[in-house]
Amino acid sequence: MIIDAHVHLFPDRVYAALWRWFDKHAWSIRYRMTAEEVVQFLVERGVEKIVALHYSHVPGMASGLNRFVAEVARAHREVVPLGTVLPGEPDEREVIDEALRLGVRGFKIHCHVQKMASDDPRLDPLYGRAAEAGVPVVIHAGTAPVTSGYGIDSRTLCSAAATRRALERHPKLTLVIPHLGADEIDAHLELLDQFPNLMLDTTMMLADYFERPLPIEKLARHADRILYGTDFPNLPYEWDRELRWIDSQALTSSQRAAILGGNALKLFT
Asked: Do residues 104 and 80 make contact, with C-beta atoms less than 8 angstroms apart?
């Protein structure tokens, strides 16, 4: 089973804004599709479940995005919807509770976009409610990518140390850190040994785009805590580049099955 644990589904107008931002500050997105086209593309290529992520950057935006992704999930059984919230926005608790009523299986936070560290006290209401509901929070809390387009210095905002503090404060919370925690991959791998509710996803880190993939021994050692993810459709390269890398490595069948889908299946469904 292949589960892509990191796919971005947005309404058309938000996709268009993202493409403009990426063109100016990051890379040229190869797959410029609608949400429906994204789902169809991945399903036709053998992806059995799609964990749908989105995030908001202004107050009042999150609720509409949560409803949008919930509607896509109702139309496509392959989609596992996650919700979002802008921590500290008015009616934050109502946004979180509405998302849970809509059936979201977790929440997505983007520290760079939302301009807050993973241990920011504004995240405490979400962390507490997610832990209470038994759903994970996927939080882009690594420093990479570093770009002035975010309007903050992600190297001073984000760190494995901040994530450690958040987990110490919320021991029942399940966190997923995308991109293996880049640029502090080793530090985040060490956190796996200390916090049983922490997981990492592979998004863009096994594609030989930002840096060489980590040694397979490290991936294998933590195979029960690693999720396959792509960042599709916001990619500058072929969608299955990481998938092909994983398939080429000396992993056992159980390790490969866990990374490609088993871990995500237990976490999100």
From this structure: no
| Helix 160-169 vs helix 185-194: crossing angle, to nearest 10 | 20
Full residue range of the structural domain in which residue 75 is found: 3-268
Q: Residue 53 forms beta bridges with which residues?
A: 8
Contacts of 267 (CB under 8 A, 6+ apart): 5, 106, 136, 174, 176, 199, 227
Report how far residue 260's alpha carbon sits from residue 256's, in angstroms, rounded to the nearest whole number. 6
Contact assessment for residue 31 and residue 41, using Cβ atoms and an 8 Å cutoff? yes
- Please identify which residue in the block is written with the tokens 């107008």: 13
Average pLDDT over the chain reads 96
Task: Give the type of residue at 240.
Answer: D
Domain count, the chain: 1
Question: CA-CA distance, 50 to 53, in Å (whole number)?
Answer: 9
Q: Spell out, as residue ranges, where the chain has pLDDT lower than 70.
A: none
- CATH number, residue 121: 3.20.20.140
φ/ψ of 8, rounded to 5, equals: -100, 120
pLDDT for 123: 98
Report long-range pairs for 119-123 (Cβ below 8 Å, ≥24 apart).
119/162, 119/163, 119/165, 119/166, 119/169, 120/87, 122/87, 122/88, 123/87, 123/166
How crowded is residue 174: how many other Cβ atoms within 10 Å of its Cβ?
Answer: 21
Query: What pLDDT is recorded for position 210?
Result: 85
Which is nearest to 95 in space by CA: 122, 118, 125? 125
**pTM, rounded to two decimals:** 0.97
Which DSSP string corresponds to 68-121? HHHHHHHH-TTEEE-EE--TT-TTHHHHHHHHHHHT-S-EEEEHHHHT--TT-G
Measure the CA–CA gap between 178 and 223, rounded to whole angstroms.
15
